[in-house]
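Comment thread on ticket #2218

A.B. wrote:
> Attaching the input chain for the structure job we discussed in standup.
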Amino acid sequence: MDQITSYPGEIIDDAAEVAQPRRWWIAVVLLATIVFGFFDRISVAVLFSWVPFQDAMGTGFNPAKLGLLMSVFLFAYALSAIFLSFVGDMFGQKRSLVVSTTIWGIAMAGMGAAATYPIMLVGRALLGVAEGPQFSFAASLVKRWFPKREHGRANSIWLVGSPLGSAIGFPLIGSFLVPNFGWRESFYILGAVNLLVVVPLLLLVVKERPTGAAIIAAPKPSRADYKAAVMSFMTDWKFWLLVVYNVGTLIYLWGLNSWLPTYLVKSRGINLQSAGLLSSLPFAMMFIGEVAGALMCDKVGRHALIAACGMTVAGVMMYLGTQMATANGAVLLMGVSTLGWGIAIPTFFALALRVLPKDAVAFGVGIFNGVGNLVGALAPVLIGTIIAQTGSFDSGLLVLVAAPLMSACCITLAMKVGYGAK
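C.D. wrote:
> Ran it. Output below, let me know if you need it in another format.
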């Protein structure tokens, strides 16, 4: 009879889990929390070119200040992911998700009522703190509810919420909510969805662990063994190549999420409603890339090679997109760029699980995500500052060219020295 680890010191009998179809509904609800969470994350990026919002915040079109609204969220998000994910283990993953989602709703409503730029910054920071541990809570629930042989499918259900959230969120907010109701009302509506839809779904569908599961004591690794496992990769320079690789991927992701709609409006002369629709295409392509990358990874192997090729495509096509004469051509090439990025992501995570020692996977992944998001948080404000200094959006978007190419170089070097070559 198969067994899997449920939480530190416990094992859940596999047979008790597979008989409970509820687990797939839990995965779907986790997907909903990721999608709606991304609506909240990108809600302010849609407004960078919206004059009523600029006037209300007193910023005008100041790219550095507007970019900071994304960066402050990301800094808070990264720190929270590193230092607050433990609350799920202490108080339960379901309860922690319910509380954090409730805070999302309150934060969104507060930002809708914000009268000044500093208040909006505080609201964005609060949202980042509340959303930071979300992926940790979701992954822990999947590990608790699904047999090991189903982990890939179960995790893929909620992981695709990231590109789906952007693909749906940009047209929903930029082309529908803001033009028809106003920017403040768009925040109120998104906050209400969190409180009136997502929280009830979590309460009604998600359970902390399967009922009737056989709990068996599992030996914990000693403190010395755990420390040795951690030090085995923390002192390995090749591991830090992978960390730098992930930094590049998150610079690209958050820079694109922050500035794509405004780039289309300011640099390509597209109105906000059309920009919202066009902005969804690259993220739809990103979603396709993630699915294709996961299948390719399992079928072909060669994780590092696939990741290197994907990030090279991302950087080269992003550059070519900025050079296109037409807006539609630019968006199409940027879509190919995000397709390459999407292909690289699942292969990278599969590679990370291969090279990290089994007793310290959570800590290693925490380093990848924490450092990556901390540095990635600089992307929105860095791009905004470059735009402000040069007056050129194309110059700002060169950050999205350099970052994936840096990642491709790092993963290629890792592969050359035999680190995750297969």
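A.B. wrote:
> Thanks. Noting for the ticket: The first helix runs from residue 14 to 18.
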